[in-house]
Design a protein that fits this description.
With 339 residues, the chain is of the alpha+beta class. The chain has four domains: 78 residues, Rossmann fold, CATH 3.40.50; 62 residues, ATP-grasp fold, A domain (Dna Ligase, domain 1, 2-Layer Sandwich), CATH 3.30.1490; 34 residues, no CATH class; 112 residues, D-amino Acid Aminotransferase, Chain A, domain 1 (2-Layer Sandwich). Helix content is 37%, strand content 21%. The protein has twelve helices and 15 strands. The chain has a five-stranded antiparallel sheet with strand order 11-10-9-12-13. A hairpin with a 5-residue loop joins strand 12 and strand 13. Helix 6 runs antiparallel to helix 7. The relative contact order is 0.13. InterPro entries: ATP-grasp, ATP_grasp_subdomain_1, CPAse_ATP-bd. One of its GO terms (cellular component) is cytoplasm. GO terms for molecular function: ATP binding; metal ion binding; ribosomal S6-glutamic acid ligase activity.
Length: 339
């Protein structure tokens, strides 16, 4: 057994390296963007790569390399099945529809005429989204037909900036600072973040030539995040932001199990089994009839929010008390050490 790890500080790989060192697992840090990466991977049994939406190269190129490594017989996380739709809400729409999952009704158009025709006859409000972005970035409530038509015109014209830099959603960032030591830590890292953010913003292409809407589901005071790692389900809720309708990225997390609808857990397990995904986070809300609806899914998530869950459910819905590092669970599943 020999594990290759593409390391990115502040990601899953921090814990993966710690786990390997603690358990004496043979591993090596590699750079998946080296020209001879496929040759370098010769002799490795596993590849771990914490791809992220914040790195343009990851979104543009990682899946080609992952698929090639799989063809070479290497066990990869995330594998192609798990990550092909990562940071692409439109791909998730098609996938969830194909699986018969209870997706929030969603609409995508690639022709301006079709989009405008739909906007003219649609009922409002609707939720407009770009296909990329996390934490409710690039999401807005469309209140009427005129606003929808303007968005359609822009989508098939100049397009939209998809990455808003370090100061994007500044109010939420300030609200999530936490303790004074955390504030000091963020202040020290600020110059590095600012430079990285500026480079990423410059590199990110504009989103254009499509338009994507979802039905607005009123009355939800919070959404529910169910994160699956293999046969484990972790759950918590996120309150909507003040004077807003969005919950993702709010930072207002509750681990009160009384708020969790077990139907969400059942649906997440059923859909993940059809997906054959290694790990997946599902965001749920309820429609006007109280029925669960999936907003979107993602292989990528904040591991600390999952670790802070007081326990998890297995596929038989048995509860297991205690905190679990999702990075450890991912690695243990890959290594076949789950008892």
């Amino acid at each position: 057994m020999h594990i290759a790890i593409h390391h990115r500080s502040g990601s899953f790989s921090d814990r993966w390296l710690e786990y390997c060192q603690l358990h004496g697992i043979r591993h090596k840090i590699i750079n998946c963007y080296d020209n001879d990466i496929i040759e370098q991977l010769n002799g490795f049994t596993h590849l771990l790569w914490p791809i992220t939406h914040d790195v343009l190269a990851d979104i543009a190129h990682s899946r080609k390399i992952i698929a090639s490594a799989e063809q070479a017989g290497i066990i990869v996380f995330p594998d192609t099945v798990t990550c092909w739709h990562f940071d692409d809400k439109i791909a998730q729409k098609y996938l969830l529809e194909a699986l018969g999952a209870p997706l929030v009704p969603s609409y995508v158009f690639y022709q301006k005429e079709k989009a405008l025709e739909w906007a003219e006859q649609a009922t409002y409000p609707k939720v407009f989204k770009l296909k990329s972005g996390a934490g409710s970035a690039n999401v807005r409530l469309v209140k009427d037909k005129n606003e929808a038509i303007k968005l359609c015109q822009q989508a098939f014209g100049l397009g939209f900036v998809s990455y808003h830099g370090y100061f994007g959603d500044a109010k939420t960032k300030l609200r999530k600072i936490g303790t004074f030591p955390q504030f000091v830590g963020k202040l020290k890292r600020f110059p590095k973040y600012l430079l990285s953010s500026a480079i990423t913003k410059q590199q990110m292409p504009r989103e254009k030539d499509y338009v994507y809407f979802q039905e607005f589901m009123p009355g939800n005071q919070y959404d529910t995040r169910i994160t699956l790692v293999g046969n484990r389900a972790f759950g918590f809720t996120r309150d909507v932001r003040p004077n807003d309708f969005r919950a993702s990225g709010s930072g207002s997390i509750s681990y009160d199990l009384k708020r969790l609808d077990m139907e969400y857990v059942k649906i997440a397990f059923a859909v993940a089994e059809k997906m054959r995904s290694q790990s997946m986070a599902f965001d749920f809300i309820k429609d006007e009839n109280g029925k669960p609806k999936i907003v979107e899914v993602s292989y990528g998530y904040q591991p600390k929010a999952v670790y802070d869950c007081p326990g998890h459910w297995d596929q038989k819905l048995n509860w297991h008390e205690g905190h679990t590092h999702p990075e450890d669970a991912i690695l243990e599943d890959l290594l076949g050490t789950i008892k």
